[in-house]
Amino acid sequence: DAGVIQSPRHEVTEMGQEVTLRCKPISGHDYLFWYRQTMMRGLELLIYFNNNVPIDDSGMPEDRFSAKMPNASFSTLKIQPSEPRDSAVYFCASSFLLDDTQYFGPGTRLTVL
Amino acid sequence: SQKIEQNSEALNIQEGKTATLTCNYTNYSPAYLQWYRQDPGRGPVFLLLIRENEKEKRKERLKVTFDTTLKQSLFHITASQPADSATYLCALHMDSNYQLIWGAGTKLIIKP
Lengths: 113, 112
Known about the structure:
The structure holds two protein chains of two kinds.
Chain A: E1 5-7, E2 10-13, E3 19-24, E4 31-38, E5 42-50, E6 53-56, E7 65-71, E8 74-79, E9 88-95, E10 103-104, E11 108-112
Parallel strand pairs in A: 2-11
Antiparallel strand pairs in A: 1-3, 3-8, 4-5, 4-9, 5-6, 7-8, 9-10, 9-11
Chain B: E1 3-6, E2 11-14, E3 19-26, E4 32-38, E5 45-51, E6 56-59, E7 62-67, E8 72-77, E9 86-93, E10 101-102, E11 106-111
Parallel strand pairs in B: 2-11
Antiparallel strand pairs in B: 1-3, 3-8, 4-5, 4-9, 6-7, 7-8, 9-10, 9-11
């Protein structure tokens, strides 16, 4: 298996633009997680899905952030409009069970100018 | 308030020595604890999991202990090598609340 795949690896955009991050989890994993990592705040859980259904989105910072999982092999995290404070590395992770080991993708480094 | 603390300062260890990293938590009763390694530009990679009823877990040169009385986990790397240099994160999981709670990580530097 190729592991968790994320795209793009790097994204540079201007404030106010829409940003879409993509994730393909490991096949057979029922759980998908979106995280954000910054030096100041560390690793923060934004939202997670179980069998394509959002279960807990309490970590989503505000309405500018939205996430979807239209099928078992694809998820998106969208920021609209983007702001400089959204600059961070965004990770997608998947796991077989809720309390199982999580497998992380390589991350998307987002810079909002 | 609930908190997880890992050494915020980088830990410098001489090659061949044992590196010990600390994860302290307050106001939690975790069912288990995980340790991950993160290299620059990469996502965290799972290393070890230890449950509340386990005192110690080993994997090759790695050892994790879990003291629920002290509310502390120690992560040891014996015979450390420069390739062990990375950031190590601990994460707690509670049965009653899914959310995996992450520490900020400790940067480990092994000097040749």
